[in-house]
Amino acid sequence: MSSGWKGRDKIDSVKDLDLMRSLHSRALPIVDMVQGTRSLGGMMFGRWAGPCVAALLLTGCVTDKVGTDYAATTPRIAQPLAGKSRVVLLASQKKGLLFQGTICDVTLDGAPMGELKIGTYIQIDVPAGRHQLGATQTMFAGETKTDIITQNGRVSYFLVQPSKRSKAVAAGAMVGGIAGALVTSAASSGSDNPGPVDFAPLDEVAARNAIEEFQLTQSGSQGG
Predict the structure, then answer these.
(1) Could you count the other beta carbons within 10 Å of the beta carbon of residue 138?
(2) Taking the complete model, does pTM exceed 0.90, yes or no?
(3) What value does the mean pLDDT take over residues 47-53?
(4) Disulfide: which of 47, 191, 199, 200 matches 146 by Cβ 3.0-4.6 Å?
């Protein structure tokens, strides 16, 4: 019985060897194809690796640039200089009937701050305390004067928008031309604000949300 099992084992071994050889012969083309694919993949990787790495590097540069640009915009809503307060004026982006809207020359305590145009803003650091904002507009008979109080280390935001008188004069001009504008201007000369714009206080949250849509036109510091 022992020799019988040995003979059977030998036969099984031969069959297994033949099966392995058969499988090996069938597998060779597949192996060659895989190796060829790997080689082709290697060539393709070699060809595209450089551009891909360059693209990644460029992407990193662009991301860094965007971060830098964002960081560069942050100081415009940062805290004022040490020992001072900051006044920020944002011109309303709505155009007036005469297409002047909030275009005006702005002053602080009588000193020019600059020209405000639609969709722009001006900021200035000043000593804390009482100040007066002023505004005039070409071809508008009247000046806006608004008293404000600023606090040390704080930012005061104001939305500059057409005054009631400015809207009335513009409406008169639309109806009666220059004559209508003159009549309306004379009739409204006794308004609480005879000037072209109003300085409407803005809370910090609203101002920070809106300021990204505005363009800075003037920045400076006043006083010691």
Answers:
(1) 9
(2) no
(3) 39
(4) 199
